[in-house]
């Protein structure tokens, strides 16, 4: 059939009463769903597509938010290539994401405990989720006070226990400040991951465990061969959310150290924030957009790579 | 607690239900979606109804109402004088015959960002205090020169109405109302406790170092000789650049040498090294780099710090914001050999600018006249809330006797207003020049460089080398600005400038 004939057939079909009925059936069936989708799509366009387009444009401009923007070609990208603080912030961001090695095992072990018929398990659940519910900035401020070398609670405790003879300046030293932020962030987020793990555990059908019991599988074997593989899908999501979450987080460092001392806690997203909101130090939205766009591209690659690598975690496929 | 537990339980159940939801029949989805869509449409209709304000009866009512007040938006970032200013504004709003209502809004640390956002949204205030150079360049302020009547001129010191070399087209964008001096303050009680004479503040940097050690040693881990609030790196200016003036180490502000017409940061090397040594010796309040100025001032007020760098506005801070629980005094910064080779630095600054695109320009001008009235400055001066270029406020008879620090921050005969540094456009060199890993893309890079040197505890040769590089970068930037026509360096030259008055 020639192309022309095919097109005229299509046009004819669209006018056919049968097709009209099919179309109205389609509208009746899916119309409300599409109508519903229209609202989030509009919001997506306004609050996602527009900012993305804005950021892409300003990669090629100098713009400080006040004076008229100026086209600068590839200057922002050249600057980025030479920006040691940015490149080292990427490594710090990656290092910071290792806090999931504390966060997730802790969440998983606690979820296993709370999945059992432990008395008062709901109280423990509430306790563990509490740090997640409290505002991050408040938690960071509390931690800031606790770590204070002058009269902070932690130093006072260590001094009283004679474990140290001089207060530790946790937030004045590069590594101690970084590690403090990692631990704090892990502590704040393990509760929600524990809930996710609990959901994963409860979604495994009981009869699978019963069959395993009959076959003599208990303890570690039950976990190794039933719990973990059958939680594959949710485990994949927990890992993805945790990794991506930490890779685009500025952690508690905005409040705790503001990126200092000496950029030791300047994570990439805190660096981006500082480019946009430099205060009296000055802002450069063009360069901020460049850093944000390049970093976002890297995260897309990481996300796609992650899903490819973890495809086999999903036992449904 | 029970409520919280039930929330957690419900949340867990909802998550559990995720899988089940996937399997829900499509017909139910359709029903739900239709219901939600209907809800959205109904909400939309409701909004339309509400939005039809022109036809509402209230519009008619307004037409017959008495003449409404004209609201003049005034934005400020000054908090220490809030109480006095607000009470005067309230009085003005109640009594002015022009139906002007000043809406006085105080912003905190994010003031500049708020102004930028307002500019981009086209919502700039009618009057703004302390606008940035960017906003001035962007054409926000009205040229005040035509508004300066002989009557106003007679009420102010000449420095208040002098157009600075940084001004655009010779325009005056504010009446510079404050005189700010930069001094050392010290806790006399801690001096006594450490066996020091509280009437003899340190005269040399070596003495200051010795005093700091003595105060720290006698403080039992609770009191320290010095404080350094460099979580806000801007404070390197107050702990290095301003203190260096009395040693004759500067011939201009912010590293600019008005005599040679070049930038030179190398004189600051020994000051940075001094702070590194003091920190190593344990004389600085612990946790350097994690405290901003408010935190350090609060510790000084509590009596835990011996000596701090301070400015005129700290009179208000230590009397009102953080009332000092100790006897404190003001002194000049020390010098290297005990002899002053330069005058203590002071600057005129701050002032209200009028938005030249204000919808109520005439009313804004009247509000501005009130904001620079003698009444305003006299009231502020009586409360000890600063030093002013307004002559009525300089009357010694009205200065409060019960507020500490007022005398100490008054300008003396030797005080010097150091020449202004050129207002560079950092975007002229893009990608920016570099000093180490730092981009020379903003004036604050000077503070960042000093902070980096301090935090890395560098030795003197490294500090000197880095500051030399910083000076070179700034000089290249100044040349590029000259070439681009954004500045004329001749406006900033003062070959005859002497930092020490005869």
UniProtKB/TrEMBL annotation, chain A:
InterPro entries noted in UniProt: MetI-like (IPR000515), MetI-like_sf (IPR035906)
First and last residue of the signal peptide: none
Membrane topology value: Multi-pass membrane protein
PANTHER family, alphabetized: BLR7065 PROTEIN, SPERMIDINE_PUTRESCINE TRANSPORT SYSTEM PERMEASE PROTEIN
Subcellular location field: Cell membrane
Start and end residues of each ABC transmembrane type-1 domain: 85-306
Pfam families named among the record's database cross-references: BPD_transp_1 (PF00528)
Similarity comment: Belongs to the binding-protein-dependent transport system permease family.
Record's keyword terms, sorted: Cell membrane, Membrane, Transmembrane, Transmembrane helix, Transport
UniProt xrefs under CDD domains: TM_PBP2
Domain of life according to the entry: Bacteria
Main location: membrane
Name of the featured protein: ABC transporter permease subunit
TM ranges: 33-56, 96-115, 127-147, 186-204, 225-247, 285-307
């Amino acid at each position: 059939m020639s192309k022309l004939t095919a097109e005229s057939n299509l046009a004819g079909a669209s006018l056919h009463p049968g097709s009209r009925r099919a179309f109205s059936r389609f509208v009746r069936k899916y119309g409300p769903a599409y109508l519903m989708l229209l609202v989030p799509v509009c919001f997506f366009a306004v609050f996602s597509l527009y900012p993305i387009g804005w950021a892409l444009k300003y990669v090629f401009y100098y713009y400080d938010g006040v004076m008229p923007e100026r086209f600068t070609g590839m200057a922002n990208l050249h600057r980025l290539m030479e920006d040691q603080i940015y490149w080292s912030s990427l490594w710090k961001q990656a290092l910071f994401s290792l806090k999931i090695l504390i966060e997730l095992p802790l969440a998983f072990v606690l979820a296993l405990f709370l999945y059992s018929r432990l008395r008062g398990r709901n109280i423990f659940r509430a306790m563990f989720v509490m740090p997640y519910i409290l505002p991050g900035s408040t938690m960071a401020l509390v931690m800031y006070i606790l770590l204070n070398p002058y009269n902070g609670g932690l130093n006072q405790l260590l001094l009283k226990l004679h474990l140290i003879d001089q207060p530790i300046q946790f937030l004045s030293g590069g590594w101690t400040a970084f590690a403090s932020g990692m631990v704090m962030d892990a502590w704040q987020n393990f509760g929600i991951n524990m809930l996710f793990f609990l959901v994963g555990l409860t979604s495994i059908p009981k009869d699978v465990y019963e069959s395993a019991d009959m076959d003599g599988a208990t303890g570690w074997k039950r976990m190794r061969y039933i719990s973990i593989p059958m939680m594959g899908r949710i485990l994949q999501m927990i890992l993805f959310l945790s990794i991506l979450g930490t890779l685009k987080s500025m952690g508690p460092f905005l409040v705790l150290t503001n990126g200092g001392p000496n950029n030791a806690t300047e994570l990439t997203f805190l660096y981006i924030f500082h480019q946009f909101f430099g205060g009296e130090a000055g802002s450069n939205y063009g360069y901020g957009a460049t850093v944000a766009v390049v970093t976002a591209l890297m995260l897309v690659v990481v996300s796609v790579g992650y899903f490819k690598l973890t495809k086999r975690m999903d036992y449904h496929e | 607690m029970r409520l919280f537990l039930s929330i957690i339980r419900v949340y867990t159940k909802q998550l559990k239900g995720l899988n089940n939801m996937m399997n829900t029949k499509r017909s139910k989805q359709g029903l739900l979606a239709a219901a939600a869509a209907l809800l959205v449409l109904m909400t939309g209709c409701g909004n339309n109804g509400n939005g039809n304000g022109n036809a509402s009866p209230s519009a008619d009512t307004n037409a017959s109402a008495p003449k409404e007040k004209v609201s003049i938006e005034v934005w400020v970032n000054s908090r220490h004088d809030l109480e006095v200013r607000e009470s005067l504004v309230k009085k003005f709003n109640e009594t002015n015959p022009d139906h002007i209502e000043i809406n006085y809004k105080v912003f905190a640390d994010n003031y500049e960002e708020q102004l930028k956002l307002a500019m981009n949204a086209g919502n700039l205030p009618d009057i703004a205090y302390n606008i940035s150079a960017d906003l001035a360049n962007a054409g926000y302020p009205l040229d005040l020169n035509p508004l300066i009547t002989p009557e106003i001129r007679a009420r102010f010191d000449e420095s208040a109405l002098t157009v600075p070399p940084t001004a655009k087209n010779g325009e005056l964008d504010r009446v510079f109302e404050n005189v700010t001096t930069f001094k050392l303050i010290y806790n006399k009680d801690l001096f006594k406790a450490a066996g020091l004479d509280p009437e003899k503040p340190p005269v040399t940097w070596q003495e200051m170092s010795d005093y700091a050690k003595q105060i720290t040693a006698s403080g039992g881990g609770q009191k320290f000789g010095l404080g350094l609030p460099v979580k806000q790196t801007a404070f390197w200016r107050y702990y290095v650049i301003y203190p260096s003036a009395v040693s004759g180490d500067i011939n201009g502000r912010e590293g600019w040498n008005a005599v040679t017409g070049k930038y030179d940061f190398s004189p600051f090397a020994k000051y940075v090294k001094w702070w590194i040594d003091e920190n190593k010796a344990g004389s600085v309040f612990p946790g350097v780099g994690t405290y901003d100025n408010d935190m350090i001032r609060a510790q000084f007020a509590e009596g835990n710090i011996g000596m701090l760098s301070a400015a005129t506005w700290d009179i208000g801070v230590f009397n009102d914001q953080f009332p000092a629980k100790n006897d404190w005094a003001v002194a000049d910064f020390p010098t290297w050999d005990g002899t002053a080779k330069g005058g203590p630095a002071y600057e005129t600054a701050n002032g209200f600018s009028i938005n030249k695109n204000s919808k109520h320009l005439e009313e804004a001008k009247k509000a501005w006249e009130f904001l620079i009235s003698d009444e305003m400055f006299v009231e502020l001066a009586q409360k000890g809330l600063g030093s002013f270029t307004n002559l009525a406020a300089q009357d010694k008879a009205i200065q409060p006797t019960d507020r500490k620090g007022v005398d100490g921050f008054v300008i003396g005969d030797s005080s010097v207003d150091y020449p202004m540094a050129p207002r560079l456009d950092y975007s002229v060199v893009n990608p920016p020049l570099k000093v180490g890993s730092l981009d020379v893309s903003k004036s604050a890079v000077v503070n960042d460089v000093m902070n980096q040197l301090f935090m890395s505890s560098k030795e003197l040769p490294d500090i000197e080398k880095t500051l030399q590089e910083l000076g070179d970068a700034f000089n290249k930037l100044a040349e590029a600005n000259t070439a681009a026509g954004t500045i004329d360096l001749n406006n900033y030259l003062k070959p005859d400038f002497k930092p020490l008055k005869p």
